[in-house]
Amino acid sequence: MAGETPVEALTRQQASAELARLSKAIAAADKAYHQLDAPEISDAEYDALKRRNAAIESRFPDLKRADSPSENVGAAPAEGFSKVRHRVRMLSLANAFENEEITEFDARVRRYLGLAEDAPLTYTAEPKIDGLSLSLRFEDGRLVQAATRGNGETGENVTANARTIADIPDRLTGAPAVLEVRGEVYMGHDDFETLNARQAESGDKTFANPRNAAAGSLRQLDPRITENRPLRFFAYGWGELSEPLATTQLGAINRLAELGFPTNPLTTRCDGPDEMVMHYRMIEERRATLDYDIDGVVYKVDDLALQARLGFRSTTPRWAIAHKFPAELAWTRLEKIEIQVGRTGALSPVARLHPVTVGGVVVSNATLHNEDYISGRDAKGNAIRDGKDIREGDWVQVYRAGDVIPKVADVDLSKRPKDAKPFAFPRICPECGSDAIREEGDAVRRCTGGLICPAQAVEKLKHFVSRAAFDIEGLGAKQVEQFYRDGWIREPADIFTLQERFGRGMQQLKNREGWGEKSAKNLFEAIEEKRQIPLDRLIFALGIRHVGESAADLLARFYVSWDRFFHAMSSATVGEGPEWARLTAIDGVGPVMATSLVTTFHQPAERASIERLVRYLTVEDAVPRGAVDSPLAGKTVVFTGSLEKMTRAEAKARAEALGARVSGSVSARTDLVVAGPGAGSKARQAEKLGIEMIDEDGWLNLVGDA
């Protein structure tokens, strides 16, 4: 990376400090990628960190740290799933970036095996899918367990989720008694775009790229969410076996295909490095036409007996290597920086670019993240891009690497126009003229105009009619923009007075372009149907910052009725009082979300708009999840202390499935406390209030097989 001291020029003291820095940076990147499914740096940047770490360790082997990244695989499993210990470790692969490294890989294998340079030695070559690694365990032909890679030793149990993926068979015929199939869960490009459009329409978080979408979809605590996501699977290997699949790698892959697993059709056998590199080039050329993301080609020694002889290093097999693609980069002119205002008032800078092809896709726009990124700093004020700011007219490097939204990665100062001026990020909203402020700790500047800001108003209305909210047939984003522009709809309540305000409304609407008598009639009927709405959908439809579908459902099930919810939010005071304590005690509601909720209901304009809306609605009370005869239906449960037989997230999910509300604190409204070892003040409070307490075994007996 620019500005780094070359490895060969480092002193011992500098090398030691650099290894410490790299260890910390790589650990943070591993956590973001493997646990959070939200990578913070590109694959190319990550690979550069790993290569630099390896180079320093090679030059100063005695300085190698106990927590060296070269000894780690992935990251610790995330909380929320039970843990699975792999019977055969799931290891990562060593990486190569140049053709010469493939020749050296072949030479290393030959040296280890004692083979002459001209002795026959074949390899398989297959695309390296950019997804989430998964291990599937079958016993007597039946799928009994699915686990993510995790840290290679221990992964997450995602069996229920894996069963929802159509590519993964539930039963096999003719398989070994024990068969662990290893492969990659991924999402196709077309499916990814459809999912993101659906997420945006319903007001949910969109995903940065198909890999994030696949990982986030597989690691859902609710398998029903996974089932509704278009996940795919490629099998490429195996773990524990009761009997061999074949004598060669390619033969074993073909056997997996015969058993019913999808395998990649671009997998082939190669005779030596020259053919391996030729296949790499062919796949690289076809990369942009594939419906899935790949980030390289994997080579494996084909003979399984030779694989067994070669064995493993601490974290990688000696018989395989990944030939990585370079990052997808291109240079172009940044013609203009524009500011867009979103539903929550966030001012988002967008780079308007001279069109350029990046990774087979024509790019004319790119995100600039926020004002810090434009100025060459991160949120903490540290320099990025060596402190180079971004200006209109700059020659910029655009980075894609599979992301839906390209990013500006670098600036060529040698080509900067002499009259280019630093970009002045607006302090005033460009849409409504209200102050745009940046709260402490927030990387984003936001318009304070609320509903008087047309950009926010339109986006809020689009969110209000989205699929997960009111979902009014015939009233989508395009119609909302049209009606807002014509002054017909300014706030949600206006939707329900539309027909009345226009003298039954039909004539004016049916005369509009794109509308007829039938479509106008259908729209008004659709609006009438939505006057009755479930509580969770109404809460979500309000578009309150930090309140998504899951949070809206959580709040609805806790407060049950609109009147209770409205009263609680209106009477709560941020940071103090019983209603605030009750709100923040809900397991899953933190102070950030609570502040957003309470602030919304204390803003006169927002509150008045909500009150006008509710006059036209019948809000259905929330129905507890689970069977009505469940022993926990409608009860408030608190978990405290350590749970040893399940994770806290599993216990919470089990309780909610049985209709319970899970709270984070004990009060007079608490019905049951589950106390594990180490329970402290919450257990004492429960005892003081005379609330029923049980241990983990008692809890498991209570919930049974639910």
Please explain how this structure is put together.
By secondary structure, this protein is an alpha+beta fold. The chain has 6 domains: 7-72, Helix Hairpins; 95-324, DNA ligase/mRNA capping enzyme (D-amino Acid Aminotransferase, Chain A, domain 1); 329-415, Nucleic acid-binding proteins (OB fold (Dihydrolipoamide Acetyltransferase, E2P)), CATH 2.40.50.140; 450-530, DNA polymerase, domain 1; 534-620, DNA polymerase, domain 1 (Orthogonal Bundle); 636-703, Rossmann fold. The protein has 26 helices and 24 strands. The strands form 7 sheets. A 5-stranded mixed sheet has the order 2-11-10-3-9. The radius of gyration is 29 Å and the shape is globular. The protein starts with 11 loop residues before the first helix and ends with a helix.
